[in-house]
Amino acid sequence: LKLKEYANMHTTVHTIELMANILTNLENAARVGLFDSERFGKEIQDLKTIKEREDLSQASRLFLELFFSEHRLLQMVQYAQDPTLELKKLAELIETSANYPDISFDAQTTIVEMIGRVIDDNEEYEKLIDKISEISSLRKSEVEGAIIHFNRAQTLIDKQQYKPVVKHLGHCVQAFMKEGYETELVKTYGYMGIAFYNLELPYSAKAYLVKAASILVKEFFTQGTISHLLITVLWKLCEIELMIGRLVMYLNWRELLFIIAHNGQEIESKEFVEKDILFDGGWACHFAAVDLTRETISVLPDIFARCDMPISENYLKYALGYQESVDEKFVNLITDDWGKLLRQQPIHKQFLNPLNIAEEGQTTISTLAKGCRFTVRYENSVRSQLVAETFLATVETLLATFVTLELVVMSPEIQVEIAPTDEQSEMERGENENQYVFNVNYGTLDGETYWRCFAFFMAYFMSLNTVSSEDVIDLIAQRHEKEKIMDRIIALLELNNAVYNVLGDKFKYSIRQWENANDKTYVCKADTKGETLTDQNPHTEQRGVQTFSISSTMEWWDKAGWTGVCFMYDQRFATPPIVGLAFKNLEAGKRIIHEWKEKIAKGQSSVELHLIRGIDKQHPSWYRACVAPEIPLDHITEGQYIAVMCRKHTMTPNDTSNLDNFERVYSRFGNCQLVAVAIDDQMHVNMNIDFS
């Protein structure tokens, strides 16, 4: 009461702030019945009366408006009301308050962060955080602005809202590289890795976790201290390799994990042992779903025996037909169908990729992002593997935060071949729009060179393989302004150095490097070669859109120069009619037709031809020919959007006689032939048709 009396006489931001703090405490007390709610309401009304005083300073009135806006927000959240409009108002008030030194901007930031703990996914709130961070960066430093984003990311991690986590942490990856912020940088990398992993983007997750491990391993070797966070990061790297089926890299991370865990006694903990057993069982599930006659499989049991992975070791001995060598602890499983039991495990719905055991020579790695499978082929080595992983990580990072229909990838697969060169490193297009060649000079490849090559890929990929709601350049520019997308990508360009810091530059990249000279080869002598499984994972995070296309490479249509359709039939209507797709480049057109023919021969879905009348009131004889993919209903996944790549052409005849006759003959037979025909620049069709 004394403060209230004093505040009425000496009304300043400071005295009002003291009153507001007391009222906040009284409100909390009123909610649990420790203070009269009517009395509290009267006190609030008195504060509103102060706000209406004509002699009140602008700073004091603004502070009261902030207080009431924040109070209304909390009430809206409590009663499950939409806070969007109030958030917009609060954002304007906070931006204005930054110009008043009497109002503590730090205090307002803290209040907004507290409100964020109870507000779920809301775009206006994220904009408010962006604005507060921007003001903090201008008033203090880039690091202070990054801390705002970092705190929000921590809250969102707990809420399992991973896309906005990536957006906020993009503001941190460069800012925290300043001296004195190593702890925040490690946590940023760790949170980024967790977020990407939960978005089913394993290579970007792995890249950021390796960067975190690089800093933590350095501390281990220089200071001798073992961070529990390092153990956690290495376990997560092992988990990622398990989910993408990369056995060789799993063995590398696990070996390092055991070395460090031995030094810190972590290896003796119950949790450590149980997790290792669980992962061992996960690999056994992989082996239960592959062709056991693969030569690589035959060398694994003794490798697993040395690595102390008894479940995988003994399952393979059993499955390959060496039951007599199975440890007695697993004998009871032999009496049942052990393989069937493993194939029924729910982990198959979590695997992101099938088993991938790297050997010497050509190998591939791949990832699924925005419904597109990106596959990189390379001659296996330490350096080429890291270039391939960096490429997939940067692609994942680029596409991570686009919402479903904001950017749609229309190509089901993109293939990239890494080719060593003694010339300058460069990215170039391959044989078609879905293929690229990355010519790499390993001696001169650095972050700047890699960025130039990836920028080339990004430009062509965005223009040829995607459709977007707005101009792609504008889209990327907006993304960088809002979430520092380029900073996220650039942070990955020196991935090789981070890996070298953790594993060294001569880590084992092939399963053959894990063999010993006296290892036994377990050639498959079982009655069955094993049962392979199709992908069981719905990939809900990366398959928001199903794409159906008339051709695997739509660029063929541009080269073929499709100009419409023509009809051929005998005058007696004795045989099915023929529809000719008229191409200026006949050979390119034949390629399109032959692909359909191959699909039909394999029993796969092909295409449909739609002839649509009545498209122009002024020209009733005109019609539209549309070639569209055939979409079987059983191929449609519930809850996903469908994108269709087709081609259409408007036909402008003077009358409908040709179309009428075609429809008459077609209705008689119920089918027709579809062929490619040549047409010249004068629109004359060559009737010499090759029906092969």
UniProtKB/TrEMBL annotation:
InterPro entries: TPR-like_helical_dom_sf. It comes from the Bacteria. This is Uncharacterized protein. It comes from Tannerella sp. oral taxon BU063 isolate Cell 2.
